Amino acid sequence: METGKRAEFPLVTAIIAAVNVTVFLISDLILYQKQDMIAFYMALNPFLVLEKNEYWRIVTSMFYHFGIEHLMSNMFMLLVLGTLLEPFFGRVRYAVLYFASGIIASGVSILYNTLVLRESGSLVFCAGASGAIYGLIGAFVAIFIFRGKQLSVQEKSRMVFAVFFLLFGGLFEKGVGHDAHFGGFFAGILLGSVYCFLLKRKVFSDKQK
Questions:
Q1: Quick one: 199 exposed, middle or buried, by C-beta within 10 A (0-12, 13-18, 19+)?
Q2: Using CA atoms, how far apart are residues 206 and 89, in angstroms rounded to an integer?
Q3: Does the annotation mark 181 as catalytic?
Q4: What is the mean predicted confidence (pLDDT) over 127-152?
Q5: Cβ count near 101 (within 10 Å)
Q6: What does the alpha-carbon distance between residue 108 and residue 113 come to, in Å, rounded to a whole number?
Q7: Would you tell me the crossing angle of helices 130-146 and 68-89 to the nearest 10 degrees?
Q8: d(Cα 1, Cα 147) in Å, to the nearest integer?
Q9: Distance of alpha carbon 30 from its chain centroid, rounded?
Q10: pLDDT digits over 65-79, tens only?
Q11: What b-and-e string marks burial along 113-143, b requiring 16 or more CB atoms within 10 Å of the CB?
Q12: pTM to 2 decimals?
């Protein structure tokens, strides 16, 4: 992808990754004896959000992971996608894209577990950065749609393969929050499309980071 003058160090991506790793080190290594308690207070649960007004879970759940493999897989995708998208959109817009996608993903998860799973949904605890990361994938789709002419054939093929694999590769795995993934993905497409439209109209300038 062409980034022009926006080619810069992905500071926001680095900070988000650092916070995720720090939370894991504290919860799973330093305070490992209280790990279950930390997970309980940081994870997303629809009953505790809606009935107990514990809205902080919508955000804290984006920074907590269930184990090292969960963390490493999400941080790998964050670094791969973020180092491309953050310079392309600019730091502020990228941060809005990431957190808006994560929050919408949490909202979709709450709705799904409340309206579809109902009583059993109140027992579900969700965590991880994947909802926000799928928003980044959705933004790539928006770039493909609106600025595809600027992409090489190789970039297009890699993008299509990555999106297909990430969306459907683990579709039938149990214990995976597919509802949050798809919520974040479509949020990313929507916001990414708005960004691409405004960039095309040159509403954004290179100084607007």
A1: middle
A2: 10
A3: yes
A4: 86
A5: 31
A6: 9
A7: 30
A8: 9
A9: 26
A10: 998 998 998 999 999
A11: bbeeeeeebeebbbbbbbbbbbbbbbbbbbb
A12: 0.86
- Token reading at 19: 């916070």
CA distance 79 to 124: 28
Does the pLDDT value for residue 183 go beyond 60? yes
User: What span, in angstroms and rounded, lies between the C-alpha atoms of 175 and 161?
Assistant: 24
Say how many CA atoms lie within 13 Å of 127 toward its Cβ.
22
Q: Is residue 121 within 8 Å of residue 113, measured between CB atoms? A: yes
Instruction: Based on the residue annotation, tell me whether 205 is a catalytic residue of this protein.
Output: no
Structure tokens that stand for 183 in this block: 């919520």
Catalytic residue among 27, 101, 106, 181: 181
> How many residues does the structure list for the chain?
209
